[in-house]
Amino acid sequence: MTKSVRVDKWLWAVRVFKTRTAATNACSTGRVLINDEPAKPATKISVGDSVSARKGDVLFVYRLVEPIEKRVGAPRAAECYEDLSPPRPLKSDMPLAPPGGARERGAGRPTKRERRQLDRLRKRNGP
């Protein structure tokens, strides 16, 4: 008999999300996948299942090693999964200037015209 646990409880217990509510919301909005299928908060997972969770721009991919329901310490939580996440970019790889250019220090607030130009530039090059 394989033990199974709710995906929202497990994500909270292994400290992927700070609160169970955040884990439940992530499941409900489609940011959590189990074996590449969208997961509802009450979906049961068991040993060997792949769980993908997206938090902002970061993707976490885990293989379940031990199903737990109670929140435990970080070292113990790390034993309950195998981390398959892609490497995150280093801070040194990130650009120093914000997208859309940087203003000179002490230049003050942008004028209305400059603001429109910045908005156009960010929409063209932004997310």
Question: How do you describe this structure in short?
Answer:
By secondary structure, this protein is α+β, with helices and mostly antiparallel strands. It has four helices and seven strands, in the order E-H-H-E-E-E-E-E-H-E-H. It has helices at residues 7-13, 20-28, 74-78, 112-125; strands at residues 4-6, 32-34, 37-38, 44-46, 50-55, 58-64, 81-83.
How is this structure best described in words?
- It is a single chain.
- This protein is an alpha+beta fold and 127 residues long.
- It folds into two domains: 85 residues, Roll (Structural Genomics Hypothetical 15.5 Kd Protein In mrcA-pckA Intergenic Region, Chain A), CATH 3.10.290; 31 residues, no CATH class.
- It is built from four helices and seven strands, in the order βααβββββαβα.
- The strands form two sheets. A five-stranded antiparallel β-sheet has the order 3-2-5-6-7.
- Strand 5 and strand 6 form a beta hairpin.
Q: Pairing-aware structural class of the strands and helices?
A: alpha+beta
CATH topology of the largest domain: Structural Genomics Hypothetical 15.5 Kd Protein In mrcA-pckA Intergenic Region, Chain A
In helices, the fraction of residues equals 25-40%
Number of helices: 4
Low-confidence stretches: none
Could you say what the CATH architecture of the largest domain is? Roll
The CATH superfamily name of the largest domain is: RNA-binding S4 domain
Main sheet properties: 5 strands, antiparallel
Provide the residue-averaged pLDDT. Answer: 86
Order of strands in the sheet with most strands? 3-2-5-6-7
